Amino acid sequence: MRPFLFLGTRAEDDVAQQEYDAVLAGCGLRPDELVRMRLEATPLGEVDLDDWSGIILGGGPFNMSDPDDAKSPAQRRAEAELRSLAVRVVEADFPFLGACYGIGVLGTLRGGVVDRTFGEPIGALPVRLTDAGRDDPLFGTLPAEFAAYLGHKEAVSRLPDGAVLLAATVTCPVHAFRIGRNVYATQFHPELDAVAICDRIDAYSAHGYYEPHEREQLKAAAREAMVTEPVRLLARFVELHAREWPADRNSQLPSRVRSPRLEG
């Protein structure tokens, strides 16, 4: 099988590793089948879409709507690289699943608008599928309503032209959408469980997601929530898009997997 490519942007090693491990487990893949690259640390370089079954983009503290003068050089570079990749992915209708930060990356294409209108505090909320979401090959694996962990400053206030709305909450009208047949973004985090979201609450205490006095209350509420369904998206994404190498290709992994910039 051609591997999947996981793109991360978290600078905190423990949280970055936890995110990758959770996505790996949710996908049901081995490390050599989900190759990781950390864009906050190193340039993306050239991505040959033919080398991969699909691409998964994780979340992180980067926001497209951050003021330009507040963005670090690493954030500005990662944004430019991801936008270029996203344009290619959309043009090719290549399998792509972006969680949280994927909303920012895909949501600004084709006339879409991402801003601070529909931010939501860290926690678990009920997410409802639209009719299109219930009929969707990927999102149709979920129940019509399910609880999901989330927490975001920005969101889509205008969908990209031609995008299909798949899910929403009461407080955020765009929680998932699709462009073409195979390119997806979610505002919620499909990989998160209670332990992981509590660790992220601690890790990002200085990033403005909540007031310091709210930390323990947010963690307690997260532990009480029953969040079981969103992770099914990851295994379904793999099920839909895993593909084999051509019969005449000898190598089982892209040559760049052996680069120190890419990790299994």
From TrEMBL:
Q: Which UniProt keywords apply?
A: Glutamine amidotransferase
Q: Which Gene3D superfamilies match?
A: 3.40.50.880
Give the highest taxon in the source lineage. Bacteria
Span of domain Glutamine amidotransferase: 49-192
Return the CDD domains for the record: GATase1_1 (cd01741)
Task: Return any one Pfam family short name.
Answer: GATase
Q: Transmembrane stretches, by residue range?
A: none
Is Iron tagged as a keyword? no
Does this UniProt record's set of keywords contain Membrane? no
Checking NCBIfam families in the record gives: PRK07567.1 (NF005743)
By what name is this protein known? Answer: Glutamine amidotransferase
Q: Which organism is it from?
A: Nocardioides pinisoli
